[in-house]
Automatic annotation (TrEMBL):
This is Sortase. The keyword Phosphoprotein does not apply. It holds the Pfam family Sortase. The chain crosses the membrane at residues 21-46. InterPro entries: Sortase, Sortase_Class_E, Sortase_dom-sf, Sortase_E. NCBIfam families: class_E_sortase, sortase_fam. Keywords: Hydrolase, Membrane, Transmembrane, Transmembrane helix. The lineage of its organism: Bacteria, Bacillati, Actinomycetota, Actinomycetes, Kitasatosporales. Residues 78-92 have a biased composition (Low complexity). GO terms for molecular function: hydrolase activity. The keyword Hydrolase applies. Coiled coil: none annotated. The active site is at 169 (proton donor/acceptor), 243 (acyl-thioester intermediate). It comes from Streptomyces viridochromogenes. Signal peptide: none annotated.
Length: 265
């Protein structure tokens, strides 16, 4: 006697539904993966490409404006520059050789206050092959996400006694400060303005501190979170700050440099 296997339709339907659910779930996962991949490509590659291109255009525009200023062909950008140092707030001189301690105004030429988010200087770090514009303020949308380096409001300007403090992205949006951890003592950092070029020499690095360690931006920069890192004497300082570790914003990496020379344009 031959036995006939009876297949229940309800079982077939359940298996079909399971296969359909698995297929649909796989399609959803693939779609999500593609979207995430596109977001990563946009954040890591496209924002760098756009920001770097924009920063390079701004550097060229500043150079044209400064070069044209002498023959009367400069544009409105020539009015954006670092302000005059204030002699009433000048600490003990520790600046470029050959300049007078009794005449701190020689460290920068008279100029109006820079406009917010407008580039008014160029930062050059030869060791990193870096040349980017410096703008007033540290707003992400108006400054940092453009691939610029931002000047901390309330800190000094290039060549002034005190602390000229800057911030820049380490990852994405041009990432100008991606490799500042590679800077070593005596590496040079140049800041060009309409009136002069200031050269700083890297002196110290604070590998990691909290995001709220604002004392590293003081006129005499010194970490209160990491005692022993920073300075105790007044001088002419440059501070570079960025996020660390890479692809996070939990901590801050700080590089300090001292002014060693000033050359009028």
């Amino acid at each position: 006697m031959v036995r006939v296997r009876v297949v229940r339709h309800s079982g077939l339907r359940r298996r079909a539904l399971r296969r359909r659910a698995l297929w649909s779930g796989g399609e959803v996962l693939v779609t999500v993966g593609v979207v995430l991949l596109l977001l990563v490509v946009h954040q890591v590659w496209w924002t760098n490409r756009e920001a770097r291109a924009g920063a390079e255009r701004e550097v060229r525009a500043l150079e044209r404006a400064w070069d044209g200023e002498g023959d009367g062909d400069g544009d409105s950008r020539t009015a954006v520059a670092a302000p005059t140092p204030s002699p009433t707030s000048t600490p003990a001189y520790n600046g470029p050789p050959g300049q007078s301690a009794g005449n701190p105004r020689r460290s920068a030429a008279p100029a109006p206050e820079p406009d917010w988010s407008r580039a008014y200087a160029i930062l050059t770090i030869p060791r990193l092959h870096l040349r980017v514009p410096v703008a007033e303020g540290v707003s992400k949308s108006r400054v940092l996400n453009k691939g610029y380096v931002g000047h901390y409001p309330g800190t000094q300007q290039p060549g002034q006694a005190g602390n000229f403090a800057l911030a820049g992205h380490r990852n994405t949006h041009g990432e100008p400060f991606r490799y500042i951890n590679r800077l070593a003592p005596e590496d040079t950092v140049q800041v060009e303005t309409r009136s002069a070029t200031y050269t700083y020499a890297v002196d110290k690095t604070l590998p990691q501190t909290t995001a709220h360690d604002g004392s590293v931006l003081r006129p005499v920069p010194r970490s209160t979170v990491r005692p022993g890192h920073g300075y105790t004497d007044p001088g002419y300082y440059l501070t570079l700050t960025t996020c660390t570790p890479e692809y996070t914003s939990k901590y801050r990496l700080v590089v300090w440099a001292k002014l060693v020379s000033m050359r009028p344009r």
